[in-house]
UniProtKB/TrEMBL annotation:
The lineage of its organism: Bacteria, Bacillati, Actinomycetota, Actinomycetes, Kitasatosporales. It comes from Streptomyces natalensis ATCC 27448. Residues 35-142 form the Aldehyde oxidase/xanthine dehydrogenase a/b hammerhead domain. SUPFAM superfamilies: CO dehydrogenase molybdoprotein N-domain-like, Molybdenum cofactor-binding domain. This is Carbon monoxide dehydrogenase. PANTHER family: XANTHINE DEHYDROGENASE, XANTHINE DEHYDROGENASE SUBUNIT D-RELATED. It holds the Pfam family MoCoBD_2.
């Protein structure tokens, strides 16, 4: 990229060859990040670049009567203004599964903040001022904001003339996708129940709230193509959506991952990628786009808000008899990942429990609310909130301990899921619950022991100094959840890795090249660890992720260590065999072990399984190199039946359990989470330090949606009321409690090294554990997230 001053670079890390899998090796990008030297996507720079800006709709649902760009074009410093009419091809929509999202609005806008026009100028403020001069006349239309308005007999259709592959089986065009799951006979099973409990639950719209805003740099190429440097979660998915809109073959859209400042699902969809590329190709100059926080709230999808109705029955000795539930997810104006979220919500709606007779329905709606899609937990979060509240209700009605009740009904290896799929790897649900219950509790009323030196930050209200302990009540709550790992329902889930082994400076070194998006999860660390383990080298270089290598799939679904880690392992194993073949050719006549022994690469040498050194790797590879690119796939899954929901839909399951300890100021409705203990089975901890970090991070996001996080949408106008970190609150270090972590390692024989995907499971059960603790403290039912002060005080 000629003229660039900040670009992605190789990450090279030396380490002992025993710093392979199982070691807590340091991140190769860690020092760069904490010293401010790491180049995030917003740091990209190019000589003579322009700045792009996206003008968005100020209303949620309206016809576009006219657009006048003349004043914007006339402003000094403006190089281009684009609207729908300027798009270069007949492909004007994009989407992950259903291509229903316009690049720029045409004829109609369907949600607040929808992109309508683009501006490129020589300064970001010039671009913003020019965009403000674009005159758009709207004719506002009624808004659809809930299930009642979406499914009414006379409901306005958010998308008229649908012809996508889901449209044929949904009962209403405003339903994106519907997935029922029927197993056994729930009505008959209910007759055996001694107690039946039901409840309606509401889960708020959560934002991914990543700190690095959407941003990137598009550079026009001499061949008529474009080089795009962007923060994303899936380079090749972006590529397949971008190239048709630009009218370019995929090989002319060269994508490189820039530094990603967090993702959590919010970067799976396209944001500014197509817009920057269009402006760069129109102007012939590099174009950079960086959203501010306000724009970011409109620039990516959010977690689906949900309304859930559940009914459970149980016998007097505590065994579950049946489950009926209905889950309604609001997908907003465009489909995004809604179909897959519906599949997850329905198939995991029973939770980690044995229930033979179920009647389940999950749907996602089209509405004029903000588009919703992928976020950490992906449909399983909303379901876990509801079924765990139900478990507490049942335990209370039966007079049973809530942990013992869960253990009595816990699934285990061999349990049949409601989809008919057997759980064919360890499912230590009861053991995880036992472990968190056995953890020591934090001392009560810590402020009393501290006397006058008490730290008010340990009390509800914190530094606002609203209480010194009066009216403060402690509560304890438990929850456990189940999450799938990897892409499901028959998706061809694969990942690619290229590995090169050669001699540099007299030492054998390895280079690992994948298209995996490193979004903070530590994949680059694990890839180096795998290469050290399999190839016996110290120096490993991680090549920048780009589309010059095969797809790595998305950094989502807790899949990357399993899938791209598996691809790196698989490719390294094949490289190792090639290296050994070279050794046999060069040195096989000198020692019979070359032909008879099991050979390993360790410590930069070829050794036998008995530890005898046969050769230095540097000598074996002198004058030669081994370079392979291979794909890795997990075992196949299949789509759920559209009528019964039966099918082998998921490749793996992961489990986590939480115990929350809270203190509640019952007079003011303020909550302080004192501790969130967690136990999780990770299969195999490839990097124990990173594992704990992922578990604590997921736990904190679950805490956020329990007590503070929610995007507020006006039910009358469908406009977002709080698109800023001033009004949309996320946990800070003062809100985050102690998070003790107990890691269990029970290998899954189907997975590389026996590992399990870990990133999402702790996000599920932390939320209902906190709610359960608040209920325990207050005696209130609390069926909505987040819990606000007025919910506790009744004011």
């Amino acid at each position: 990229m000629a003229g660039a001053t900040r670009t992605p670079t190789n990450l090279t890390q030396g380490g002992k060859t025993d710093a392979g899998i199982g070691a807590s090796t340091l991140r190769p990008d860690g020092t760069l990040k904490v010293t401010g030297e790491f180049a995030y996507s917003s740091d990209m720079w190019h000589e003579d670049m322009l700045w792009g800006f996206t003008l968005r709709s100020t209303v949620a649902h309206a016809e576009i009567v006219s657009i006048d760009t003349s004043e914007a074009l006339a402003q000094s410093g403006v190089y281009a203004v684009l609207t729908y009419d300027d798009l270069p091809t007949d492909v004007k929509n994009y989407g992950l599964e259903i291509q229903d999202t316009p690049v720029l609005a045409h004829g109609k806008v369907r949600h607040h903040g929808e992109p309508v026009a683009l501006v490129a100028a020589d300064h970001p403020e010039t671009a913003r001022r020019a965009a403000a001069k674009i005159k758009i006349e709207y004719k506002e239309l009624p808004v659809i904001t809930d299930e009642a308005s979406a499914l009414a007999e006379d409901a306005i259709l958010v998308h008229e003339g649908r012809d996508d592959h889901h449209s044929g089986h949904v009962p209403h065009p405003n339903i994106v996708h519907r997935q029922p799951i029927i197993r056994g006979n729930a009505d008959e099973a209910a007759k055996k129940a001694d107690v039946i409990v039901s409840g309606e639950y509401v889960f708020g719209m959560q934002d991914q709230a990543f700190l690095g805003p959407e941003s990137g740099l598009a550079v026009p190429g001499e061949d008529g193509g474009v080089d795009l440097y962007v923060a994303t979660q899936w380079l090749h998915s972006d590529l397949k959506q971008i190239a048709p809109v630009l009218g370019l073959p995929e090989e002319k859209v060269r994508m490189t991952l820039s530094g990603v400042g967090g993702a959590f699902g919010g970067r799976e969809d396209i944001s500014m990628q197509i817009h920057a590329s269009l402006l760069a190709l129109r102007t012939g100059k590099p174009v950079k786009i960086v959203y501010n926080r306000f724009e970011s709230f409109f620039g990516h999808v959010h977690r689906h808000p949900a309304k859930l109705w559940y009914e459970h029955g149980a016998t007097k000795d505590g065994k579950l008899t049946h489950l009926k539930c209905r889950i309604v997810l609001d997908g907003g104006a465009y489909a995004s990942a809604s179909p897959a979220v519906v599949g997850n919500a329905s198939s995991l709606s029973v939770g980690p429990y044995v229930v033979d007779d179920v009647e389940i329905e999950a749907i996602a709606l089209y509405s004029n609310n903000p588009p919703c899609g992928a976020m950490r937990g992906f449909g399983a979060v909303q379901a876990c909130f509801a079924y765990e509240a139900q478990m507490d209700k049942l335990a209370k009605k039966l007079g049973m301990d809530p942990v013992e009740f869960r253990q009595l009904n816990a699934m285990e290896q061999g349990t049949i899921m409601p989809t008919g799929q057997p759980v064919d790897s360890p499912a230590p649900v009861a053991e995880l619950l036992r472990r968190i219950k056995a953890m020591p509790l934090p001392p009560e009323q810590q402020w009393l022991a501290a006397g006058e030196g008490a730290d008010v930050r340990a009390l509800p209200g914190g530094l606002s100094n609203t209480t010194h302990g009066e009216g403060v009540v402690r509560g304890i709550g438990y929850a456990v959840g189940i999450k799938n790992v990897g892409f499901s329902e028959g998706f061809d889930d694969y990942s690619t890795a290229r590995v090169r082994m050669e001699v540099v400076g007299g030492e054998a070194v390895a280079t690992v090249h994948t298209a995996m998006a490193e979004v903070g999860q530590g994949g680059v660390t694990v890839h180096a660890q795998i290469a050290r383990t399999e190839l016996g080298v110290e120096q490993v270089t991680i090549h920048p992720a780009d589309t010059q290598v095969g797809s790595a799939g998305s950094t989502s679904a807790s899949r990357q260590t399993y899938m791209t880690g598996g691809a790196v392992k698989n490719t390294c194993e094949n490289v190792r065999e090639k290296v050994l073949d070279i050794g046999r050719r060069k040195f096989g006549t000198y020692h019979p072990a070359w032909a008879t022994a099991e050979l390993l690469l360790e410590g930069g040498k070829v050794v036998t399984d008995a530890g005898e050194v046969l050769a230095d790797l540097a000598d074996v590879l002198e004058g030669e190199a081994v370079d392979l690119e291979l794909e890795f796939r997990h075992r196949p899954t299949e789509a759920f039946d559209l009528k019964t929901g039966q099918g082998f839909g998921h490749v793996q399951y992961s489990f986590a359990a939480h115990r929350a300890v809270v203190e509640v100021d019952t007079e003011l409705g303020l909550v302080k989470v004192i501790e969130l203990a967690v136990a999780q089975d990770v299969g195999k901890a490839l990097n124990p330090l990173s594992v704990v970090g992922q578990i604590q991070g997921g736990t904190t996001q679950g805490l956020g949606v329990a007590v503070m996080e929610e995007i507020i949408v006006d039910p009358k106008t469908a406009k977002v009321r709080n698109p800023s970190f001033t009004d949309y609150l996320i946990p800070t270090i003062l809100d985050t409690p102690t998070i003790p972590v107990d890691v269990l390692e029970l290998a899954d024989e189907h997975a590389p090294y026996g590992l399990r995907g870990i990133g999402e499971a702790p996000t599920l059960s932390s939320t209902p554990a906190v709610l359960a603790a608040i209920r325990n403290a207050t005696g209130l039912e609390l069926n909505k997230t987040p819990v606000r002060p007025e919910h506790l005080t009744g004011t």
